[in-house]
Structures are given as structure tokens and as C-alpha cells.
Amino acid sequence: MAGARRPTVRDIARHAGVSVATVSRVSRDDPKVRPETRARVRQSIDALGYTPSALGLGLAIQRHHALGIVLPGLGGPYFAELVQGIESVAVGTGLAVTVLGTHLRPDADRAVRQLAQRTDALIVQAGTVEDELLDTIAASLPVVVVAGTSRRLTTVRTDGAAAAHEITAHLLQVHGYRRLRFVGTPDGSPDPTSRYEGFRRALAEHGLVESGGPLRFGFEATSGALAARELHARGDLPDALVCANDELAVGLLATLPGLGHAIPGEVAVVGFDDNALAGLASPMLTTVHQPVFEIGATAARLALAPDGPPPRPDSHVLETWTVVRESCGCPPVVGGPIDATEKTGASA
Q1: For residue 38, what is the domain's CATH number?
Q2: Are residues 193 and 174 in the same domain?
């Protein structure tokens, strides 16, 4: 019919009940697509009269034997463990891994587009790339988002709000603390934003408000040290500090005692992630265990599946739990931090 809209790859995917990445794989005769899926897609292509666009073919015409990872930065134990989890799957399939850090890059969008042209799938940390750009790339390439939500793409994450609510409730209910403050910058990045929301919700349920706004110095251990010095200078220590990650908490643990403040005697400190330093710190850090390695591995398995990620947004929420150690005010447990772990199941 004259003037009729030309069908797109998304129309074919919707008609066949598959992902747009699967349509592209069928268009280029990718042998990994299951025969029954291939037949269903070809039937939809014939029914709708679809012709792959030059742009789609340009992105998907060949296999590069590489998996791309897009992160805001490359430093810190969280990103290191996430990449290790992704690599554990990619290496087993014979793919190389290429990591792009976008922090402070004025050409970040262009760099992400170029990476997409050199890889067979992308795993992207939530909040790192604009949704519109990801949608464009996902039309021809499998894309999985980690540590956040998406209206259109498959995601792998934990429920940071529920986990932060749980560890904050521990401070309120078990220890009776009433003056609590959040350490971290809950702006822009989904992870600290959700953790801050859970922190505030736990306070509200106990008829409390936060004892001052978030201490916004960043997310590294040095940022925790800066927060410690700021609190000391103002002479306004709360009962407890709830940190957006373990690095901030370790910075506080390393700095506050030198300024004359006992942990947990004068102020309790808790973290999030349960990285390798949490059980080695003194006092040992009470924190939320987040399965970062498995988040990466799950994202890689979804991105590299024969038929690509599911055709509709699919959120995989992995379990977290509170790890009770010493920094919250609980006594040391004989046997070490493993025996002190309370698996309370903060998951959706």
C-alpha cells in the first residue's frame, strides 16, 4: 500500500516473539540460533515483508568474537569483581572481553558506538549510557544492563533499596540508634539512589528523619576519609553512618579512630557490597553481601545466549543479605565473619 510504514526490526521481533538481536542473527544466518526460532523469525519476515536496513547489517554482519563492557570507571573492587564474573563466562565461550570506562570522556557516546561495532554483545552499567543510545544499539546487538532498571532492556541487579532498608533496620531495632546519616552521593547513579531510598524508608517507618543530608564526597575510600574529617570538624557525629559502599566505610574506619572517635563505641559504621576488605577491617565491617561476581556472570550468560536476551524487558534480581560483624556494635563471633552472617534474604 502506498505510504504504508516500512516494517522495522522491532516489528519483526514483536511479531515473532523474540528479541531484536535474534532477528539480526537470523538475518545474518548465525548458526547459534535454534532451528525452530529461525523458522519462526523467517515466517514473520515473510509475513511483514521485512528487509534488513543497512545500519542493522552494518552492526551485525559479522561476529567479532568479543564481548563489550561499558562502565563509568575501571577502579575499585566492585568493578573488578563484576568484570571477573563476566570474564568467567566469556572466556569459556572463546570470546575476548573489551572494557570501556566512560568517566570524564567527552566523547563517551561515540566511544560506546564504536565499541558496539567491534563486539557481539554489550553489558552496560546502569546510568552510564543514555537510554536512547542503548535502544539504538539494542536494535542490532544484544544489550544487558547491570545494577539498574530499564523499560526496554533485560537487566541484572539486586534490590538495593530493600537491602539498605534491612541493614538500617538492624541499626534501629537491634542497637536502638536514633541519629543516622547516609554517606554517599545519591544522585544520577541508580545503585546509591536506591540504597538512599531504602535508608530513608527505614527511618520513616520508625518515625525518624536523617541526622543531616547525605555526605557527598564520592565513592572511594578517600571520600570516606573526607567525610570523617568533615564530621570531626563540625563536632556533629551521629549514632551511626550508613555508607553507599564498603570503600566509603573503610575510609571512615581508617580515619575516625585517628581523630579520637571510637568505632563502634562512639559511632557505628556499616557498608554495602561485602568486598574483600570488609572482613579484614578493624573492627570488621557490618555490611550487605551483594553477589557482584554472579551479577556479572548472569549478565554475560544472558547476553551470549544463542537467541540473545529475552524479547521483552526481563529483570533478574539476585539475593542479598546482611553480614553482621563488629562495626555496628555487635560483639565479635567466634569463628570469624562467616559464622556472623545473617542471611535474611533482602531480595525482590
Answers
A1: 1.10.260.40
A2: yes
Distant-in-sequence contacts of 9-17, Cβ < 8 A, 24+ apart: 9/50, 9/52, 9/53, 9/56, 9/139, 9/140, 10/139, 11/48, 11/50, 12/41, 12/44, 12/45, 12/48, 12/50, 13/311, 14/311, 15/44, 15/47, 15/48, 16/40, 16/41, 16/43, 16/44, 17/311
* Count of domains for the chain: 3
How do residues 70-83 score in pLDDT, each as one tens digit?
Answer: 998 888 889 999 99
Closest CA to 347 of 108, 156, 160, 97: 160
Q: Per the structure block, which three cell numbers stand in for 332?
A: 565479635
* Pick from 26-35, 37-46, 204-213, 289-298: least confident: 26-35
Question: Which grid coordinates belong to 244?
Answer: 553507599
Low-confidence winner among 2-11, 85-94, 200-209, 271-280 (lowest mean pLDDT)? 2-11
For 262-283, what is the mean pLDDT?
94
**In terms of domains, do 66 and 42 share one?**
no
Residue 239 and residue 180 share a domain: yes
- Provide the β-strand partners of residue 315: 155
Residues 198 and 97 in one domain: no
Beta-carbon contacts of 251 under 8 Å, excluding residues fewer than 6 positions away, are: 220, 221, 222, 223, 224, 225, 226, 227, 228
Query: Domain for residue 90, yes or no?
Result: yes
Task: Name residue, grid cell 523499560.
Answer: 151
Asked whether residue 332 is assigned to any structural domain, the reply reads no
Q: Residue with C-alpha cell 551483594? A: 290
Helix (H, G, I), strand (E, B) or coil at 337: coil
Do 302 and 254 share a structural domain? Answer: no
In a domain, 107, yes or no: yes
Strands, E assignment, 138-177: 143-146, 154-158
Looking at the fold, whether 76 and 142 belong to one and the same domain comes out as yes
pLDDT band at residue 218 under the 50/70/90 scheme: confident
Measured between alpha carbons, how far is 258 from 239 in angstroms, rounded to an integer? Answer: 18
Q: How confident is the model at residue 141 (pLDDT cuts 50, 70, 90)?
A: confident
Q: What is the Cα–Cα distance from 309 to 48, expressed in whole angstroms?
A: 23
Instruction: State the Cα–Cα distance between residues 248 and 269, nearest whole angstrom.
Output: 10
| Residue 43 structural domain | 9-59
